[in-house]
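Input (structure):
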């Protein structure tokens, strides 16, 4: 795990925890690292999970496919981001989405039960870890509320403007990068790609 310490130190889950404590903590959490090629399934919709993931490198997408094969992207996670944690602790028997790698990725898996329950050593940094997790889950709820605001707009143009305005505000600039290509952005906003591309051309003009 030593080669990943520089990444783990910047991850929000481990904020406030000293580097010397991290390796001991990862042992307490039964943490393990797995490598995935681009396009591989990390979690499959319909399964039950007891671990959540932290992206060490690469990207993963949270996707939901309907009966007819239409895909919606619920989110994209990059280095330092968590995924699956809410469903571990909600004790939901069936995962309602899949997690797919969008690039070659290294994923750190953490046992959800070991994080929630104090270890036998009664590590002083365990409570810090739980506070960090509560903050992460709370912020994800805020982001989900924002996405609902985007997709509740009536037209493709309104959805685009709402999303792009929010990204500009977050970046503090009229120039910014978004984490999606055109198809992914269409899936994220639940719109047709062709209609969205037409609106983007109109907005650009």
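Output (sequence):
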């Amino acid at each position: 795990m030593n080669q990943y310490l520089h990444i783990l130190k910047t991850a929000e889950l481990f904020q406030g925890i000293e580097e010397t404590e991290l390796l001991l903590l990862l042992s307490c959490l039964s943490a393990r690292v797995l490598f995935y090629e681009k396009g591989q399934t990390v979690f499959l919709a319909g399964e039950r999970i007891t671990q959540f993931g932290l992206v060490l490198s690469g990207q993963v997408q949270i996707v939901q496919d309907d009966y007819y094969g239409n895909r919606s992207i619920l989110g994209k996670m990059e280095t330092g981001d968590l995924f699956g944690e809410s469903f571990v602790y909600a004790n939901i028997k069936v995962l309602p989405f899949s997690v797919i790698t969008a690039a070659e990725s290294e994923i750190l898996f953490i046992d959800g039960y070991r994080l929630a329950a104090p270890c036998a050593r009664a590590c002083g940094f365990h409570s810090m870890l739980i506070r960090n997790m509560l903050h992460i889950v709370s912020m994800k709820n805020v982001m989900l509320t924002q996405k609902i605001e985007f997709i509740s707009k009536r037209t493709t143009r309104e959805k685009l403007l709402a999303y792009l305005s929010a990204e500009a505000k977050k970046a503090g600039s009229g120039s910014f990068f978004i984490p999606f290509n055109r198809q992914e952005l269409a899936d994220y906003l639940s719109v047709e790609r062709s209609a969205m591309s037409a609106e983007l051309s109109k907005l650009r003009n």
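Notes: The radius of gyration is 19 Å. The mean pLDDT is 87.
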